[in-house]
Amino acid sequence: YLVGVGRADCTGPVAQVPLMGYANPEQVGGGLLSRLYSRAFIVAEPEGSRRVVFVSADIGMVSQRVRLEVLQQLQSKYGTLYRQDNVVLSGTHTHSGPAGYFQYTLFWLTSKGLIRPALSAIVNGIVKSIDIAHENMKKGRLFINRGTVENSQINRSPFSYLKNPEAEQSRYSSNTDKEMVLLKMEDEDGHELGLISWFAVHPVSMNNSNHLVNSDNVGYASYLFEQEKNKGMLPGEGSFVAAFASSNLGDVSPNTRGPFCANTGESCDNPQSTCPVGGAAMCMAKGPGNDMFESTRIIGQNIYLKAKELYEKASQEVRGPLSSAHQWVNMSDVSVELNATHTVKTCKPALGHSFAAGTIDGVGAFNFTQGSVEGDPFWDQVRDQLLGEPSNETKACHKPKPILFSTGEMTWPHPWHPDIVDVQITAIGSLAILAVPGEFTTMSGRRLREAVQREFDSYGTPGMNVVIAGLCNVYTHYITTYEEYQVQRYEAASTIYGPHTLSAYIQLYRGLAKAIALNATQDLPRGPEPPLFSITSLTLLPSLSAESAPANKTFGDVLEEVRQEYQEREVAEVTFVGANPRNSAENATEHNFLTVERYSNISSSWRAVLNDASWDTRFYWSKGSYGQSNVTIEWHIPAGTEPGVYRLRYFGHYKKKVSLFGTITVPFEGSSSAFQIT
Description:
Distance between the termini: 51 Å
Structural class: alpha+beta
Low-confidence stretches: none
């Protein structure tokens, strides 16, 4: 094959923008723990014209808006080389990235609308990573390996899982998929290029009290692998690219200690995930660490260490033709043949009451609990008044789900949820990547993989490695099994196309697999094209206005100085007169907010040893009054840090008033005093 890899920043605004994932409007960005990246991999046939692109981006999920804009840009740059059928865009599912990149109304409620700078950062970052991969294509080889990751996941809805047929459960040793599948890439001389790992776990080690943008546990795994392979480079630099992509993580939590009542400390591992005092809002899962930062590192390191072992031992070469199959499907109206006599249908999208309960990884609001198969008269009344009552047809279609939001029947100011959904498989030789538009639960994913595997077998391509790539192309929430759907925990309440959603996807992906096996992908009907709404920006974010520094101070001045001396495992901390970090996101594509610099006696100069992509640094922004704000930079000095003289630097942009209505953006910087590490 010809192989190319690329990585590009897609962080976007790190302040004032809500974070995407927990749907908690209080959880807005207030700084940066680690940068977000898009990682792109292109594989092409050396002779033929066939190629496939796989992108894993450190974002909550790929939205339809992101995908359509990326495809538009690729078309204008590359013509028909990169298209909807051979480009897979997958989100890692971090819950600590900026929101606001959706065109469907439901997501605006917790995102403060459509936020152009957040959307642009993601779209441009993805396109740039593909550009870099495209420019770096070289002859190479691919190897596949698989292995088991221990101590890194639990099933967060075990009571749903237990509703699956006992005969089916007995075929598996665990209620989560512990297998990691890893694809290793090197050039023809054996130089290392990168890897993609697929593993099913929610990146929710950082909980919904976090305000620092970061890529969570799987992002930390990428960071560790890339730091090891790109020796001597700052984080985010260097040619080796390691993507830790999502899979069927729907009911899989990294918070391995399980659910406890925050107020009493007793277990709340019950079908409703509720506590005797305080109800469901008190039931929260704990990670393995003492705090969320440590839990993120522990889970991330587990994943990294297994990937490293699989990478080093990977010897099974991937060979064979490339192909890709894609269709757009109206998921609110799919007829599914369950057997010769029985046909069922999917439904217009709707969310159930338990959607509002959230999960043990991020609890919901008010008094909603998981597992409600009855509506609540009070909330139903509120909904009917505000949003209108669901039609009888939709109610009947979704049974036993009590509908909270009948999003498929809500069209103001335009649709609340997608109808048109991408289904897609790309095959690289013996590896088949199922790009799924949401979060399949453990058992849903197993059923889908097995059905696709059987389809390949029966049409003459046996021995395919079938892997699920999650959160691709368009976000449609969750996909549970029919049996899990009956008990209506959070994942089931969020299975938006009704009880037969999984059966519909299995039917569709079998069709794609058959087309690939028979080399007939060109005969697949394209399906109805998804809409691109004409909104460009519509947001409740405060506008960026002129800023000021306190009396006798200027931007970048130190307000609280570092100490003169630190030891490893201590925290060096400095506070500056700051400015809104959104100014930087909107004016600089590759902006670093901070560096840690070490003084070299040999060259008598300062050299950057860390940047803001490092997991050892934290950048906090806090807004004051009268257009003033502060920035605090922390360096959590790791064990093994070389003794010497260091300083912390801050780089920002402030808005300056130049006329009655006009402002300009002015760059500035600040530095702490020098300090000693002993």
